[in-house]
Amino acid sequence: MTEATEHIDQKLFEILETVSDPEIPVLSIMEMGVVRSAKIINGIVEVQITPTYSGCPAMDVIGDDIKLAFKQKGYEAKIELILSPAWTTDWITPKGRAALEKYGIASPLSESADKEALLGNKKVVKCPQCGSFNTKLVSQFGSTACKAFFQCEDCLEPFDYFKCLK
Amino acid sequence: MNNNLIQYIYGIADNSLILGQRLGELCGHGPSLETDIAMTNISLDLFGQVRSYFQYAAKLIGGDATEDTIAFLRKEREYKNVLLVEQPNQDFAYSIARQFLFDVYHLLVLEELQNSKDETLSAIAKKSIKEVSYHTRFSSDWIRRLGDGTEESHNRIQTAINDLWIFTDELFHQTDADKAMVTEGIGVDVTLLKSNYFKKVNEILEEATLQIPTIEYFQKGGKQGIHSEHMGYLLAQMQYMQLAYPNMNW
Question: How confident is the model at residue A1, as a pLDDT?
Fold first, then answer.
């Protein structure tokens, strides 16, 4: 359990786990680490979520999806967006990282390895398709704010790399 | 209602709003798919930060104020962004030079703002630093690449840097609201950032084999709401939907 998920009632946890990131459908918001707390206060579920990137358009959708998931279980939910402490890729759970890789997105490396990768200095990003490290940076910015764009020079497949955010 | 704090927030957030709008104009028009996506991703980060600032300002203002009324329904003189960020896109070098000259400043401001006594501003700054560090890396890389590239790219980026240099001094001017907020421990004293800014900028320009401009005449006015002729056109486009269809929502 990460720092991000310690204030969550177990029965709420199970409902929250059914909500996925609209940009990465294989990943639940719990695995993503964007839910900071969830508590029932005066009969209403109060959920705090934190954005991955400030401008992430998925946050509004995630908020609506959480409300819907609770409504289907007979709860009313209120969403609060909080900025501090700021989200970090360290909050993605091991299960979440595995789900990313399986989906074809290389999961974030450590801060120093990430820097080498994004400056194109070292070949440290593993191709999620064939497992080769013979990969190159195509663009520092990828299909969404949280990803960079890479290509594998062995299997030639392009892929997204989830940037390290600390 | 703390009017100085609201004006201070505008001073910071309007820079990101107007630069974000300029970058958004490049959507579908970037020189390559990768740079097009990069510039619009940066735009998205900036708009995200602006939303946090304006939601906070709307709470301080109260009444019917929302992030949207603040972003879209002010008059030109009420926008407090620096002149640099409203300068139009010309060639790619120009957009990169504008980005670079702003990114270095933006990061220095945020690094100080995270120590603000105001918890909301401090939280927004801490969040934004991560994003703006990345922007700075992107624009610095391109400065080096264009400067140390072909004769053509070198000349173009040098021209862009020379043209935009006159807007750099204004970054370090203080408004009355700035001064009041510095006294209260909320705002950043931008006058103290100047030497570090030029040190960082000059370092990258030298690496990029570019000349550091030596001009001594600078433009100012944006922070007081007195903008260049480009601002009216920018606002006309940015405000059009809200003015034509008041309170519209996506």
Answer: 43
ipTM: 0.84
The full set of domain ranges for chain B reads 3-244
| Cross-strand partners of A38 | A8, A47
Q: CB A166 to CB B48 under 8 A?
A: no
- List the single residue in B42, B126, B138 with the smallest CB-CB distance to A86: B126
Which of B33, B99, B130, B136 should we substitute to test contact with A (largest number of A Cβ atoms within 10 Å)? B130
List all residues of chain A from 53 to 112 with a beta carbon under 8 Å from chain B.
53-57, 82-87
The CATH number of A3-91 is 3.30.300.130
- CB B103, CB B139: distance < 8 Å: yes
Residue numbers in A near B48 (CB within 8 A): 51, 53-56
Residues B41, A145: contact at Cβ < 8 Å? yes
Interface probe with A: pick from B45, B127, B137, B207, most Cβ of A within 10 Å: B127
Whether the CB-CB separation of B80 and B175 falls below 8 Å is answered with yes
When pLDDT is averaged across residues B112-133 and rounded to a whole number, the result is: 96
Q: Where do the structural domains in chain A lie, given as residue ranges? A: 3-91, 104-162
pTM of the model: 0.92
| CB-based contact A54 B38, cutoff 8 Å | no
CATH superfamily assigned to domain B3-244: Ferritin, core subunit, four-helix bundle (1.20.1260.10)
In tens, the pLDDT along B15-57 reads 999 999 999 999 999 888 889 999 999 999 999 999 999 999 9
C-alpha B42/C-alpha B176 separation (Å) is 30
Residues of A in contact with B123 (CB under 8 A): 82-84, 86
Give percent above pLDDT 90 in chain B: 94
Please state the rounded mean pLDDT for residues A54-75: 92
pLDDT in tens, B165-181: 999 999 999 999 999 99
* Pair A49, A62: CB distance under 8 Å: yes
Nearest to B58 by CA among B49, B48, B68: B68
